[in-house]
Design a protein that fits this description.
about 500 residues
Length: about 500
């Protein structure tokens, strides 16, 4: 037997047995991926969170920031100060240097201790008076794997009595609602994201066993799909036919249809399995390789020591006079200049800062102020500054059900390119003054090898005309049929193998 014949035989055997191993899982991945087009993993978006907040009162509120900071274990190390509502009352939420969180009543100055009663009050306030039932305390369950929830664990669980049977998760650190999961969303997720990401094997926010389980299975799937594509092409008669008159050598129905479906949908199968593998960032191939943007240098100061010398009622009064119904205030610093970021229930923002000693309300930071601050982000010169007035391949907004559906992604946005070895891009949101995203060469490569191949998420494809969903559903159905025929063949092969073993015994 020639080397070429041996290579083809080996490729055929590899495809056979990797296909037997992976066929059912691939079918489940296709089914769950189709569900995820319409129902995402539970998350609390900024719009849902802000929509549940009342307008902050301009009278009867609030104690000074110094009194609130005094409740922290290390006031000089506080990294974030936010005035928001918890359980219908204004509270300061402080983020500490070690990542911990706490809430201080903005009227009484008492630190909030979150028990079942406080969790129920927060849930009822979030749902605008809907009743609920306290369901216990969890560190983590199947809907709360997100690492963003780590500062809030343990989590109080409250089942609400609304028509959607919403389950709310309340932070034990601050008393804030941090996740909502309606019953329909939870049920669909059993055949959606929870199944697709194999979360039945995950039991903590950072779980290397789960990560490597998904990586290894995805790798085997890539091998099965690639060898199947080679076998399909080799066995198809592009010129002429077999004795049966067909271009496929297989006469048995499932074999013939598996061959044809593989030729039609094999490329899609291979790219989806490969991009799914890339989503796990195996061995850190898409990790940033060089220096990262220095947020501390960009801010030029800490809110623990650099703040606007104003009272909260004064700020709320100014915003109210302009028709802005403030639901939340956040103290921030940009290039050493303190300011306050205000948000309303729709997610709209305003900036309060001191210009020449006079308080001013702005909608956006002037471009030159952002550029000046951006110079401190990287130890390299800026090579390009541009304002994006429309989404492009690297800065774009996803549907709410997407895993990126909670990213705000406002326009216009400022993109700054640096001359470091990795040509880092940074997007700056002028409405908030914050760094919205940063991408170096390896991260931009990951955008194509994972996001595009897996989600088909170029801005033109994301237009709300359902064409993308229709195409992906059609391709997903083809992948299911391909996987089902593989499953039938795999079951037959296993039956023959076990039967042969029994006869030999």
């Amino acid at each position: 037997m020639s080397f070429a014949s041996k290579a083809k035989r080996m490729t055929f055997l590899v495809h056979r047995w990797t296909g037997v191993l992976m066929c059912v899982l691939m079918a489940l991945w296709f089914v769950s991926g189709m569900v995820m087009l319409f129902v995402g993993y539970p998350k609390l978006t900024p719009w849902e969170r802000l929509g549940g907040l009342p307008v902050l009162p301009s009278s009867g509120c609030c104690i000074g920031l110094e009194a609130a900071l005094a409740q922290s274990r290390a006031p000089g190390e506080v990294t974030s100060i936010v005035l928001t509502s918890i359980g219908g009352r204004p509270h300061y939420v402080l983020s500490e240097g070690d990542g911990g969180r706490l809430a201080v009543d903005a009227v009484t100055g008492v630190r909030l201790v979150v028990g079942p009663a406080q969790a129920l009050a927060a849930a009822r306030s979030f749902m605008h008076g809907v009743g609920g039932e306290y369901a216990g305390l969890v560190i983590e369950d199947r809907w709360t794997h997100s690492r963003s929830l780590n500062p809030h664990r343990q989590l109080h669980v409250v089942d609400m009595r609304d028509a959607a049977a919403t389950r709310l998760y309340v932070s034990s650190a601050t008393g804030q609602v941090v996740l909502d999961a309606p019953r329909a969303e939870r049920l669909w997720n059993f055949v959606g994201a929870w199944l697709h990401w194999l979360y039945m094997f995950r039991d903590r926010p950072t779980d290397p066993v789960w990560s490597w389980t998904v990586i290894v299975l995805s790798g085997i799937g890539v091998v099965a799909a690639f060898t199947g594509a080679l076998n399909g092409i080799w066995r198809w008669r592009f010129a002429g036919t077999y004795k049966s008159g067909s271009k496929s050598p297989f006469r048995e129905t499932y074999l013939r249809w598996h061959h044809i479906l593989g030729l039609v949908f094999g490329t899609v199968l291979l790219t989806w399995i490969f991009s799914g593998l890339m989503s796990m960032n195996p061995l850190g191939v898409f990790d940033a390789k060089g220096a990262r943007p220095d947020a501390g240098a960009y801010e030029g100061g800490s809110v623990a020591s650099v703040r606007l010398p104003v009272d909260v009622p004064q700020v709320l009064g100014m915003l109210s006079a302009q028709g802005f119904r403030t639901g939340e205030l956040e103290w921030r610093v940009l290039a050493g200049e303190p300011y306050i970021l205000a948000r309303d229930s729709r997610g709209d923002t305003r900036l309060v800062l001191a210009a020449a000693g006079v308080l001013t309300v702005l909608e956006r930071w002037p471009e030159h102020r952002l550029v000046e601050a951006a110079r401190c982000l990287m130890p390299a010169p800026m090579t390009k500054v541009e304002v994006l007035g429309a989404y492009d391949a690297y800065y774009y907004k996803r549907q709410v059900q997407s895993m990126y559906g909670a990213d705000e992604r406002r326009l216009p946005v400022l993109r700054v390119t640096f001359g470091d070895p990795d040509a880092t891009w940074v997007h700056l949101d002028g409405y908030t003054g914050q760094v919205e995203s940063s991408l170096d060469r390896s991260e931009r490569a990951g955008r194509w090898l994972f996001n595009l191949l897996h989600s088909w998420d170029l801005p033109a494809m994301l237009a709300p005309d359902r064409v993308r969903e229709g195409v992906l559903l059609a391709l997903g159905l083809g992948g299911i049929l391909l996987s089902v025929t593989a499953t039938v063949l795999g079951l037959r092969r296993m039956g023959k193998w076990s039967g042969k073993g029994a006869r030999q015994t």
